[in-house]
Automatic annotation (TrEMBL):
Annotated ranges, domain Bacterial alpha-L-rhamnosidase N-terminal: 150-294
Reactions this protein catalyses: Hydrolysis of terminal non-reducing alpha-L-rhamnose residues in alpha-L-rhamnosides
Domain Alpha-L-rhamnosidase C-terminal stretches: 790-860
The organism's taxonomic lineage, starting at the top: Archaea, Methanobacteriati, Methanobacteriota, Stenosarchaea group, Halobacteria
Name the record gives this protein: alpha-L-rhamnosidase
Length: 906
């Protein structure tokens, strides 16, 4: 083993050098960058020390694992108890496939946050108010502090109900945090060392509270902050929120709400009321109010604080063009829909001039930004009331937008005075996944999905950044399936799954359900199909993340979902019947798909709906698989297996008419409608009788697109299961039919809530109420990787992949897929009857490569022929374990390394 093979990419709880974690048994992870064939780990040793000096001396005073024999490049900390606000240093060495020890990694660190309520020693504060709290309020808070020496290390732990922007000495250093119920309130830890100085300093917080809304529990307005500074003279200073802080109302003026879902106000900012220099030292705050002290934490509604170990990344996007309308208004086009806030820098403002602005998705015939087309009836206006001179307009809350119209700005705004601060959840690499193929439209669909998933991920996965910023379970599942594979994202998915687990215990522990959206202002609300889909999400996340802790956390809820399904099995039919949930609304007993027009005539008038039953089959199968991974007792696994087999048998007996699957049934009869939904799910879950697979697959493919963006992943999985890559390419590239190509053809730059967003045949109120920034439709990216690039995370085990390039549909494809162990790269091409595949499998990963194996022809790896493989062979090719013919394909098992496979004519 060489020095280049030493462990790299050290992460704690999936983060590099995280600050302020509160997990007392954090998981430590690493990888090795090497191109050696067969490279893998057989053992490791981790040292954790309280100081860097002890670590450098190979002393793990906090923890020394000793040499542990395992291939898993991760370990859950199990050393000395971790202390609040403590800093820990760690390193790792591994033993390779030959048993040779490698070199120690470079050191990594993590820091703990406050671990108990007593660790905060801070009080919740707010601006004094008379009577009820005012929705849409903005408040300034400030406090000055002097240090007698230079600051060597400083951290701020901060939490707010609901949101904050933290400033130090005049510069914004953080914005946050995720919405949560106040009994499970998030806090963040922020690095502020470089922002502080010896001498006078000032802390400032701009705080906002909006009451309850979609994705946001009501709670109460409040701010909690703890600054810990270590000084060069060896002293330690702690500053917390208390009665010494000063506050005043922000410059936002009374305005209507944007809509009834997010309940955010139209932001009208009066620049005359903005206190210049308010977060700098020396500002005169004598006229400000004394804060209202709610009490020392825990106080009021805030019972528990939980560390949020991730943040939001922001970047400025310049307009691609600007146009002056006949009215004199300027329209700035940013080229694509982004989630973000518009920023306008005025160079010569005029006192009391009110500049009206409007963000939007589309433009009217006269060039103006549409007030309602594409906005879902959201009021996307802004206004800036100017003061004299230079000033910058920047609202607080983000929206989805492509265009910004500025009416009568009072000066000739140039493009460099206007930008959108685009925002998304921080990810390891927004371009970690790549794809390029022989079909340009497929490539454009991949990029459309990548962009949509990135900007559909905020403090939580959002339904849409415009009307509903809530985290819907099915939307989150779909987006998570993309972000984990496209960006190597883990922490937002973990947070989201944990939050839906909380929803079960908060609202549904007795019935086995989960909330449809969580957290949320309306509290208890579920959708049956969403609950049934939760086990699939847990398993998919685990396969890409190796997050065993999360798997263990979610398993009791997965089992509760399985029991929920079983309790609704009707004794006479054996089918899941009248599945409780969504009572009194359009989701009752099963949503099927959404919006309603995306059901394409699905016959829901049956107590046993086929989609509900097939999702139940899958939920039971996933419960067994998750239980097996966790080593649950055999009788427990047998329970899931028996119930799954019985339900699957009833589905075939009652819902399969001998040719196709119909939409529903009862004890007396069955529907005569065989929807694409019913048949696609049957294919995706492997329920179709062997002799009917081709017939059902033909029916599904011939229908074109007859499933909505919410449920379309099962259609794509049906094509994968029935080996129809060409049908999938047709679906992705037909601009005349519903789907992604049609979105592109209509000028869409973000996936939509419905394929019909701009369909003039839809009723006006439905068409205008559909989102043009709905990331749940981005799941196509995962299936481009799985089917058209041919790379799938193997269901059999973490750390295994299956590579099976498609037999038709494309002539070539290449791409990169991030994994826990490094990037996997594949490039294949088919020309004149010959096939070639270049493949790089990352360290510690094993793969089964499935190649076309003509009866007459040659197959080689790295130029070495595999020979006549009739049954099973062990080729003498480095890194290749074995090769065998399986159903007309050649299955080659390989270990880490780079390979070139060639299949040619004899």
């Amino acid at each position: 083993m060489t020095a280049a093979d030493r462990p790299t990419g050290l992460r704690t709880e999936y983060a590099t050098e995280p600050l302020g974690i509160d997990e007392t048994n954090p998981c430590l992870r690493w990888r090795v960058e090497t191109d050696r064939k067969g490279a893998k780990q057989t053992a490791f040793r981790v040292l954790v020390a309280s100081t860097r000096e002890r670590l450098d001396d190979d002393e793990g005073d906090a923890w020394d694992t000793g040499k542990r024999t395992t291939s898993r490049p991760a370990v859950e900390y199990d050393g000395a108890p971790l202390t609040a606000e403590g800093r820990y240093h760690w390193k790792v060495r591994v033993w390779d496939e030959t048993g040779t020890a490698g070199e120690w990694s470079d050191a990594a660190t993590w820091e703990m946050g406050p671990l108990a309520a007593d660790d905060w020693e801070a009080s919740w504060i707010r601006r004094p108010e008379d009577g009820e709290f005012e929705r849409g309020q903005f408040s300034y808070f400030r406090r000055e502090i002097a240090f007698d020496a230079a600051v060597e290390r400083a951290r701020v732990h901060v939490s707010a109900g609901h949101q904050y922007a933290l400033s130090v000495n005049g510069s914004v250093v953080d914005r946050g945090q995720s919405f949560a119920y106040p009994d499970y309130q998030y806090y963040k830890t922020v690095e502020v060392t470089d922002a502080l100085n010896a001498g006078e300093n000032a802390l400032g917080v701009l705080h906002t509270w909006n009451g309850e809304g979609q994705g946001r529990p009501e709670g109460e307005p409040g701010l909690l902050l703890r600054l810990v500074a270590e000084l060069a003279d060896g002293s330690r200073r702690v500053v917390t929120t208390d009665g010494s802080w000063r506050t005043r109302e922000g410059p936002w003026t009374d305005a209507p709400l944007r809509n009834g879902e997010i309940a955010e106000p139209v932001e009208v900012v009066d620049q005359r009321r903005r206190p210049e220099g308010w977060s700098r030292p020396g500002f005169d705050d004598a006229a400000w109010d004394t804060v209202d002290v709610v009490g020392e934490h825990p106080a009021g509604p805030w019972e528990r604080l939980v560390a949020q170990n991730r943040g939001i990344e922001r970047r400025a996007v310049a307009p691609e063009s600007v146009e002056r309308l006949d009215s004199g208004a300027l329209v700035f086009d940013f080229g694509r829909v982004y989630a973000g806030v518009p920023v306008v820098r005025f160079e010569s403002g005029t006192d009391s001039r009110r500049v009206e602005m409007r963000a939007g998705y589309r433009r009217e015939a006269d060039g103006s930004v549409s007030a309602d087309e594409g906005t879902q009836w959201t009021d996307m206006r802004y206004a800036c009331v100017q003061r004299d001179g230079e000033q910058t307009f920047r609202p607080f809350h983000y929206l989805g937008l492509r265009y910004l119209q500025v009416d009568d700005p009072g000066e000739d705004l140039s493009p460099d005075q206007v930008e959108v601060i685009a925002r998304h959840n921080e990810v390891p690499d927004p371009h970690a996944a790549t794809f390029e193929s022989s079909n340009e439209t497929v490539d454009e669909v991949f990029e459309l999905a990548r962009h949509s998933a990135l900007y559909g991920s905020q403090e939580q996965f959002v339904d849409t950044p415009t009307r509903e910023k809530g985290q819907f379970l099915m939307d989150a599942l779909n987006i998570s399936r993309v972000t984990t594979r496209a960006f190597g994202e883990r922490r937002l998915s973990r947070q989201a799954i944990e939050e839906f687990v909380q929803s079960h215990y908060r609202y549904w522990a007795e019935s086995g359900r989960l909330n449809a959206v969580y957290p949320n202002g309306d509290g208890r609300r579920d959708i049956p199909d969403f609950t049934e889909s939760f086990p699939e999400w847990v398993w998919r996340y685990y396969l890409v993340s190796d997050d065993r802790t999360l798997l263990e956390t979610a398993y009791p809820v997965v089992r509760a979902v399985a029991d929920y399904v079983v309790r609704h099995v009707d004794e006479e039919t054996g089918l899941v019947t009248n599945l409780s949930g969504g009572e009194g609304g359009p989701y009752e007993e099963g949503i099927v798909d959404w919006p309603a027009e995306m059901r394409y005539g699905y016959d829901r008038a049956w107590p046993a709906r086929t989609t509900v039953n097939l999702l139940g089959v899958n939920a039971l199968a996933r419960a067994e698989r998750i239980g097996a991974e966790l080593g649950r007792p055999d009788p427990e696994l047998a329970y899931f297996r028996r119930r799954c087999e019985a339900l699957e048998s009833a589905v075939v007996d009652r819902l399969f008419d001998g040719d196709l699957f119909v939409d529903g049934a009862d004890a007396e009869g069955a529907s005569e409608h065989a929807s694409q939904h019913a048949n696609a799910l049957a294919l995706a879950f492997g329920v179709v009788p062997e002799g009917a697979i081709d017939r059902v697959a033909d029916h599904v493919a011939d229908a074109g697109m007859r499933m909505g963006p919410m449920m379309v992943p099962w259609l794509l999985q049906a094509f994968e299961a029935s080996d129809r890559p060409a049908a999938m390419v047709d679906l992705l590239t037909d601009p005349a039919d519903d789907g992604w190509a049609n979105i592109l053809a209509q000028g869409g730059t973000f996936t939509w809530e419905t394929w019909h967003c701009r369909d003039e045949d839809l009723p006006d109120d439905e068409r205008r109420n559909r989102s043009e920034s709905h990331a749940m439709g981005a799941t196509v990216l995962a299936y481009v990787q799985r089917v058209l690039l041919g790379v799938e995370f193997d269901d059999a085990a973490v750390g295994r992949v299956r590579v099976r390039p498609p037999t038709d549909g494309l002539e070539s494809a290449s791409g990169r897929v991030p994994t826990e162990y490094g990037p996997l790269r594949a490039a294949w091409e088919r020309t004149d009857g010959e096939f070639s595949l270049s493949l790089t499998i990352p360290w510690n990963v094993e793969a089964t490569v499935l190649l076309p194996a003509p009866a007459e022809g040659t197959v080689s790896v790295d130029g070495e022929p595999l020979g006549d493989v009739d049954d099973r062979a062990d080729p003498a090719v480095p890194g290749v374990d074995c090769a065998a013919r399986v159903d007309g394909e050649l299955a080659v098992d390989v270990k880490a390394g780079t390979y070139r496979f060639s299949v040619g004519r004899s």
